[in-house]
Amino acid sequence: MEVIICPNARRVGEIGAAKVARIAQAVGSSVVIGVATGSSPLDAYAALADMVEKGEIDLSDASVFALDEYVGMPYDNPESYHAVINRTVTVPLGLDPARVHVPDGASAELSTAGQRYEDAIKQAGGVDVQILGVGSNGHIGFNEPTSSLSSRTRIKTLSERTRQDNKRFFSSIDEVPRHCLTQGLGTIMDARNVVLMATGPGKAEAVAAIIEGPVRAMWPGSILQLHQHATIVIDEDAAADLTMTDYYKTTYANLPDWQRLDV
Ligand code: F6R
């Protein structure tokens, strides 16, 4: 795992975007990017949009796969992940909407929607770089604690903690959906690279558990310890509970030039 500790949230977005951009440049314009919703990647999406506008990266043929969608929420609801991805990723990055995929949580055939999503990812050649946030309970995607570490895209029940965390997007807790269709931990692990971003003190416990704790289903993000190319970009607040902070900072400060992400 590569752990990069940044002075503030904005820098997390810039460095996260720089990592994604480096992979996109290496793969070419038909790169396949996995995207997360939520607050954590928003600065990175803004930084990537800036790079696209300046011609620094070419995403003209890029495909995108979102991690998850609420079950039963119409896609014209502004809080559906179809709408969120369109607003925060598709439009700002100038992507072709036909190549932007979000799990079909409002499908009339929900029981097969997970397999269809897995097939679509496979057909696109797999994900080159998966952007992730992490829940305060350690979830990635909506793989809540006790999710199978080898799970594939399927319906999950949101934990009460996640519903409380996400109620800021709704007018009351009763409006927060209870079910979602989410990529599994096995699906996420198949991405060739992952870039997880986390900021703020509310993420400190989860960040420490997934980076330095044992790999276990109670902290689903800890599965990333088994990934060959996982980069975790966090701010000082989210890094507060780590024990190897000096090591991570020294490592990053002494990276060879070809590995540096400074922008
Ligand atoms: C979003 C997702 C979640 C979020 C996580 C953190 O598609 O799958 O895992 O990344 O809940 O959310 P924020 O970034 O809002 O704190």
Report the count of strand segments: 10
Distance N to C terminus: 21 Å
3D shape:
globular
The ligands found in this model are: fructose -6-phosphate
Q: What value does the Rg take, in angstroms?
A: 17 Å
Average pLDDT number: 97
How would a textbook summarize the main sheet? 7 strands, parallel
Count of discrete alpha- or pi-helical segments spanning 4 or more residues: 8
Strand order of the largest sheet: 1-10-9-6-2-3-5
Helices and strands: which structural class? alpha/beta
Any low-confidence stretches, pLDDT <50, length ≥5?
none
Task: Name the assembly state.
Answer: single chain
Helix content: 25-40%
What's the order of the H and E elements?
EHEHEEHEHEEHEHEHEH
Strand content: 15-25%
Describe, in short, the structure shown:
By secondary structure, the protein is α/β, with parallel strands linked by helices. The chain is 32% helix and 16% strand.
Task: Describe the model.
- By secondary structure, the chain is an alpha/beta fold.
- It contains 8 helices and 10 strands.
- The protein has helices at 9-27, 42-53, 81-90, 110-123, 160-166, 185-189, 204-212, 245-253, and strands at 2-6, 32-35, 63-66, 68-70, 100-101, 129-132, 154-157, 179-182, 194-198, 230-235.
- It has a 7-stranded parallel β-sheet.
- α2 links the parallel β2 and β3.
- The longest helix is centred in the first third of the chain and has 19 residues, at 9-27.
- The radius of gyration is 17 Å and the shape is globular.
- The two termini are 21 Å apart.
- 45% of the residues are buried.
- The structure holds fructose -6-phosphate.
